[in-house]
Design goal:
Elements (H helix, E strand, L loop, with lengths): L1 H21 L3 E18 L4 E2 L1 E13 L4 E16 L14 E17 L5 E20 L24 E14 L2 E12 L13 E18 L1
Antiparallel strand pairs: 1-3, 1-9, 2-4, 3-4, 4-5, 5-6, 6-7, 7-8, 8-9
Protein name: Outer membrane protein beta-barrel domain-containing protein
InterPro entries: Beta-barrel_OMP_2 (IPR025665)
Pfam family, one: OMP_b-brl_2
């Protein structure tokens, strides 16, 4: 009798532990804000420096176990790059830098690994993004004259509409406060396709790169 009772208790405990480890379905919605330093990887190389841009938008996250979840983001993103241009008459850099600002509406699908059972959980996530260009502007140094015979990278050149895609990787923390989760992480972005098609300028490669941080606040609709 004792053995039977002990077996029932152990079986119930094992089932409860298994359920606790896997049955943790959680659907969350929220908002996110980030700051990334962007530039463009050009070939032939140019003397470019990062330009800081904001991104903000909506977040949807779903977990059906304690370890792996999925996070979707729809954001407005400010990107671009800066670089030094030389005055062909003097060979010196202009007093102001060339700057190209680009704006995107960006959709991203991330697979997230969140480890631990406490209020603070380390996270690692990665996944593809797709960016739709919605605007651009540029600041050209005063006195710069675009050569008529030599194709430049894109100074004074309107970037044609072209979808941009690549991967983003994030690492940081989830801080769970009841139904609210605060997510803080570092982000790295790398583009897989060129902003400008090869042959339209002298840029053989023109791919986005970015790195920075992002914070999100999510609320659990059910858990």
């Amino acid at each position: 009798m004792l053995k039977t009772l002990l077996l029932v208790v152990l079986s119930a405990t094992a089932l409860t532990a298994q359920r606790d480890s896997s049955d943790v379905r959680r659907l969350e919605v929220g908002v996110g804000f980030g700051v990334l330093d962007h530039n463009v990887d050009f070939t032939p190389a140019v003397s470019d420096v990062a330009i800081r841009g904001n991104n903000y938008g909506l977040v949807l996250r779903y977990f059906d176990n304690r370890l792996v979840g999925f996070q979707a983001e729809l954001s407005y993103v400010e990107a671009g790059w800066r670089e030094d241009l030389e005055d062909p008459a003097t060979g010196e850099n202009f007093a102001t830098q060339y700057a190209r600002s680009t704006e995107y509406v960006e959709l991203m699908m991330l697979t997230q690994f969140s480890v631990g059972r406490g209020a603070v959980q380390p996270l690692l996530q990665a996944g593809p993004y797709l960016s739709v260009p919605v605007g651009e502007s540029e600041d050209i140094p005063a006195g710069y004259v675009r050569p008529e015979t030599t194709p430049e990278v894109i100074y004074g050149y309107e970037i044609p509409f072209r979808l941009n895609y690549g991967v983003q990787i994030g690492a940081g923390l989830n801080v769970r406060l009841g139904p609210v989760t605060v997510q803080a992480e570092g982000r790295y972005l790398i583009g897989f396709n060129d902003l400008v098609r090869t042959g339209e300028t002298r840029a053989a490669i023109s791919r986005r790169v970015g790195y920075g941080a992002r914070v999100g606040v999510l609320y659990a609709l059910w858990r």
